[in-house]
Each structure stands twice: as structure tokens, then as C-alpha cells.
Write a structure and sequence with these properties.
It contains seven helices and seven strands, in the order αββββαβββααααα. The chain is an alpha/beta fold.
């Protein structure tokens, strides 16, 4: 007696199976995603997906200690955005050329896409969220609003972080000196004149 060959699945059955598999993967991904929970005053833990080779680190970001587990290859930028979920810091070129990812480390501005998160344990990291909020704008944020120092806004957080750092750096009084120190921050919309006006407004009031 000859066995009949197994029948091929119909197109409908194939699509139903594929859709079910995709949905299950999506649900598993959402369950295993980053979870941020408080652990005592001023300390935050973020337990992300279990990553082989992940190392524990503690980063002090905007005045709070955050206990994390990250892949040693994770950049400070990706850690801030993806693990800590502070998305004000933007990813532009990812090569240290545009300045959109500028943050402060121990009071100095750095391109967060160019260093690894594990390099900054114990250091004071400040992002745009730590400069000021809607109800308590930093003078530089207020000046950017007053001088219309932005258009699409994508580069604005990096521009402001660099501008705030500039206030503590040796800089000549004229616009040319400000442009030179802000040259690492690119505005593809071309709002440079208004950005310089905002910075000069704050410098005059300082």
C-alpha cells in the first residue's frame, strides 16, 4: 500500500502561520524590552533585554544614579536614548560631525556618539532634559525661543547644549568668535544667525 505524499499547505494556511509567528515575536519583544524602575531615592535601575556579555555600570545622569546593564560596545548616545529613554539627545550623523548628540560630561560638552557608555561611570552627565523644562526654561532655552533659533528643531537640543557650555568657555565678544565655537553643531535648516543672536542675548545678560 502506497502512502500519499504530504499535502502542501495552502496560501491561506501559510499566511496565517506566518502572521501568528510574527505576532508572537512582537509580544515577546515587548515583554523583554527595557524596564525602568526606581530603586530608592535618586537611584534608578533599567533592566533591558538579557544581552550576552552585558556589564553592569552606574551612570549619573541629570543628578540621578542609574544602575544599568549594557553591551560594552554601546555608545553613550544609544545608552541615553535607548536604555535610559531620554530622547531629547538626538542621533544625527552618528560620526561626531553634526553635534546633534551633544551632552555635558563633567561640565564639558562632548559628542555622545563618539564614546562608550562604560567609559563614563562615576561622571556627571547632563542631557537637554537636565538643563531645564517647559515650566523652568534655562535662559539659553528661553533665548532660542525668543530669537527663533530653530526651524525643524532636530539639532536644537545639541545646539543649546553647546551654547550653554560656551558660556563657561573662553570666547571673544563678537559674533565671529561665537560662530567659531559653535562650528561643531550643524543646522541643516540654516538658522545660524538666530542661533548666534540667542547666544549673544544670554551672554549680554550674564
Amino acid at each position: 500500500m502506497r502512502d500519499d505524499p504530504p499535502s502542501s499547505p495552502s496560501r491561506r494556511e501559510f499566511l496565517q502561520t506566518t502572521a501568528g509567528t510574527a505576532a508572537a515575536a512582537a509580544i515577546a519583544g515587548s515583554v523583554g524590552g527595557p524596564v525602568v524602575a526606581t530603586a530608592g531615592a535618586g537611584v534608578t535601575t533599567a533592566d533591558g533585554p538579557r544581552i550576552e556579555g552585558a556589564v553592569p555600570i552606574t551612570l549619573r545622569i541629570n543628578g540621578k544614579d542609574r544602575k544599568l546593564r549594557v553591551d560594552p560596545r554601546t555608545t553613550l548616545l544609544d545608552c541615553i536614548r535607548e536604555t535610559v529613554d531620554l530622547t531629547g539627545t538626538k542621533k544625527g550623523c552618528d560620526h561626531g560631525q553634526c553635534g546633534a548628540c551633544t551632552v555635558h560630561v563633567n561640565g564639558r560638552r562632548v559628542n555622545s556618539c563618539l564614546s562608550f557608555a562604560v567609559m563614563h561611570e562615576g561622571e556627571e552627565i547632563t542631557t537637554i532634559e537636565g538643563i531645564g523644562g517647559p515650566d523652568s526654561l534655562h535662559p539659553m532655552q528661553a533665548a532660542f525661543v525668543a530669537c527663533d533659533g530653530y526651524q525643524c528643531g532636530y539639532c536644537t537640543s545639541g545646539q543649546i547644549m553647546s551654547a550653554v557650555a560656551l558660556l563657561k568657555e573662553p570666547c571673544g565678544a563678537d559674533d565671529a568668535a561665537v560662530k567659531e565655537l559653535m562650528s561643531g553643531n550643524i543646522c541643516r535648516c540654516g538658522a545660524y544667525l538666530n542661533i548666534v543672536s540667542a547666544i549673544q542675548q544670554v551672554r549680554r545678560k550674564a
